[in-house]
UniProtKB/TrEMBL annotation, chain B:
Pfam families in alphabetical order: COX2, COX2_TM
UniProt similarity note: Belongs to the cytochrome c oxidase subunit 2 family.
InterPro entries: CcO_II, CcO_II-like_C, CcO_II_C, Copper_CuA, Cupredoxin, Cyt_c_oxidase_su2, Cyt_c_oxidase_su2_TM_dom, Cyt_c_oxidase_su2_TM_sf
Record function comment: Component of the cytochrome c oxidase, the last enzyme in the mitochondrial electron transport chain which drives oxidative phosphorylation. The respiratory chain contains 3 multisubunit complexes succinate dehydrogenase (complex II, CII), ubiquinol-cytochrome c oxidoreductase (cytochrome b-c1 complex, complex III, CIII) and cytochrome c oxidase (complex IV, CIV), that cooperate to transfer electrons derived from NADH and succinate to molecular oxygen, creating an electrochemical gradient over the inner membrane that drives transmembrane transport and the ATP synthase.
Broad class of where this protein is predominantly found: mitochondrion
Organism: Lepus townsendii
Protein's membrane topology: Multi-pass membrane protein
Keywords attached to this entry: Copper, Electron transport, Magnesium, Membrane, Metal-binding, Mitochondrion, Mitochondrion inner membrane, Respiratory chain, Translocase, Transmembrane, Transmembrane helix, Transport
GO molecular function list: copper ion binding; cytochrome-c oxidase activity; oxidoreductase activity
Reactions mediated catalytically: 4 Fe(II)-[cytochrome c] + O2 + 8 H(+)(in) = 4 Fe(III)-[cytochrome c] + 2 H2O + 4 H(+)(out)
Name of this chain's protein: Cytochrome c oxidase subunit 2
């Protein structure tokens, strides 16, 4: 086994961590959520300022918008990611069982072929 | 195993550890957003010229900062409880292995079929082969079949120890006079390292755990060779 290992993939260097804690490169959906949050916050803050010309309140709207949009994107993306993982697991189990049970009593394709042949 | 200067979790090798990683991501995002909000509020407080020294009541903000943290805590607690109960699901283990903590080594017993038991001592640094991991290698690894649920019964012969394997999401205290149970299942073959996780004396840092997860056929051959 290699005695030295890189912190992340070889050649990529240290991972980027927002506020020193959020590893946006390696956490699924994190980078997209933060990007959409930043975009949404910029739009909301700028729009509020254009309509009201109030700087401090626009900054408050920007931060609030960042939190809300990031959270919304995060939950939406993680929900879809969880569904995808479940589907991947079902597919993986199906492939493994197909190889394992081929030509045995448990083979579903063999049962279907027999039932269609008898019909 | 961990790489040098690692701060995060090791890659998950069991379904429970995968769930824990995702829960950690979820909680970390919430913590990140709260930290951003607090940082922003602090910067506002430091840059304002306004003062208000006669605040009598603040019903609206007090309502918000009571209800919002409660909602956040519920958002964190529900996935946490889900994983907690998932850890205790009934899964019909195929094998039972007992591990006893000693000062300062682990002993393992495979007594389902024949009596097989051995001790697992750390290999001293002076006896390591090139490429071996310092303070992690042992003379007798725990060989187990992969992709099968395994019941680990953990106890101790002397003082408190803790049997931990981070990549499988396992950490169970070894308490003298008590039998603790953990369920182990690995999705991949390979070597999985852990270390004693409860202070137990001078050599507490020098009693590692190494699991060698192999296909069932290899496990059968190994257990036959050991009897």
């Amino acid at each position: 086994m290699a005695a030295t290992l890189e912190p992340s993939e070889p050649g990529k260097g240290k991972p980027v961590k927002l506020l020193g804690i959020l590893d946006v490169e390696n956490i699924p959906c994190a980078w997209d959520s933060v990007l959409y949050g930043s975009l949404g916050s910029a739009v909301a803050g700028l729009g509020h300022f254009l309509f009201t010309s109030r700087i401090r309140r626009s900054c408050d709207v920007e931060v609030g918008g960042f939190i809300l949009v990031t959270l919304g994107c995060w939950f939406h993306c993680r929900y879809n990611y969880a569904k995808q993982r479940i589907q991947e697991r079902i597919a993986r189990e199906g492939i493994k069982n197909k190889i394992l049970y081929e030509s045995t009593h448990f083979d579903r394709e063999r049962k279907q072929t027999n039932s269609s042949g008898s019909n | 195993m961990a790489y040098p200067f690692q701060l995060g979790f090791q890659d998950a090798s069991s379904p429970i550890m995968e769930e824990l990683l995702h829960f950690h991501d979820h909680t970390l995002m919430i913590v990140f957003l709260i930290s951003s909000l607090v940082l922003y509020i602090i910067s506002l407080m430091l840059t304002t010229k306004l003062t208000h020294t006669s605040t009598m009541d603040a019903q609206e903000v007090e309502t918000i900062w009571t209800i919002l943290p409660a909602i956040i805590l519920i958002m964190i607690a529900l996935p946490s409880l889900r994983i907690l109960y998932m850890m205790d699901e009934i899964n019909n283990p195929s094998l039972t292995v007992k591990t006893m903590g000693h000062q300062w080594y682990w002993s393992y017993e495979y007594t389902d079929y024949e009596d097989l038991s051995f001790d697992s001592y750390m290999i001293p640094t002076s006896d390591l082969n090139p490429g071996d991991l310092r303070l992690l290698e042992v003379d007798n690894r725990v060989v187990l079949p992969m992709e099968l649920p395994i019941r680990m019964l953990i106890s101790s012969e002397d003082v408190l120890h803790s049997w931990a394997v981070p990549s499988l999401g396992l950490k169970t205290d070894a308490i003298p006079g008590r039998l603790n149970q953990a369920t182990l299942i690995s999705t991949r073959p390979g070597l999985f390292y852990g270390q004693c996780s409860e202070i137990c004396g001078s050599n507490h840092s020098f009693m590692p755990i190494v699991l060698e997860m192999v296909p069932l056929k290899h496990f059968e051959n190994w257990s036959l060779s050991m009897i």
